[in-house]
Design brief:
Elements lengths: L1 H22 L7 E3 L6 E3 H5 L4 E6 L8 H12 L5 E6 L10 H11 L5 E2 L12 H9 L8 E5 L5 E5 L8 H12 L6
């Protein structure tokens, strides 16, 4: 009898996990390792029902100074629920192979406080699931500092090239639209 009762919590946890996966938008399924940390980011748990900006970054790119403007956006909109996720990538040969150096550029040089992942592939067949879905919903990044604005339902509502500065009015309007979007669950 005791064995049966011990199985109930395990079964309930498994069913809860399945229900959560079913509720989670395709874009947010999976996890990514956090930059210079021992933890992983469960994308669904962290970002479900939240407006999100995803940026593929590179430490040695000429667009790296955009980190400052992106951090300013993070500070400006985080009280309204906006989340930002930076995903370093060496797909364009401008990211360090040493994640300690990547972290120094982001955190020390530019003062980034939004979440950053360990470097990931963001283009092609080997791209991380997040970027495969971003590409399917809009387009794959054509260079570093490509910006995706995702609504609370996990849908890309706009994407912007590296040339788009963080204070661009169209980019800001897309962020405000994502913030105003309705969550999946009422």
């Amino acid at each position: 009898m005791l064995k049966r009762w011990c199985a109930v919590p395990v079964l309930l946890m498994a069913l809860t996990g399945l229900a959560r996966a079913a509720d989670c938008p395709e874009l947010l399924q999976g996890s990514l390792p956090k930059l210079r940390a021992k933890e992983s980011i469960d994308l669904c748990q962290r970002y479900a029902d939240k407006p999100l900006v995803v940026i593929n970054t590179a430490s040695f790119c000429g667009f790296a100074p955009q980190f400052e403007g992106l951090e300013a956006l993070n500070q400006r909109y985080k009280a309204q629920g906006l989340e930002m996720l930076g995903v370093p990538s060496n797909d364009f040969k401008q990211e360090s192979k040493d994640s300690a150096e990547t972290a120094k550029v982001c955190y020390a040089n530019y003062g980034v406080t939004f979440t950053m992942t360990e470097p990931q592939k963001v283009r092609g067949d080997g791209a991380t699931h997040l970027f495969q879905v971003l590409a399917a919903q809009s387009s794959a990044p054509k260079w570093n500092f490509y910006k995706y604005v995702v609504d609370r339902q996990g849908k890309v509502i706009a994407n912007f090239s590296s040339l788009t500065k963080p204070d661009d009015p169209e980019f800001l309007a897309a962020i405000e639209k994502a913030i105003a979007s309705k969550p999946l669950k009422p």
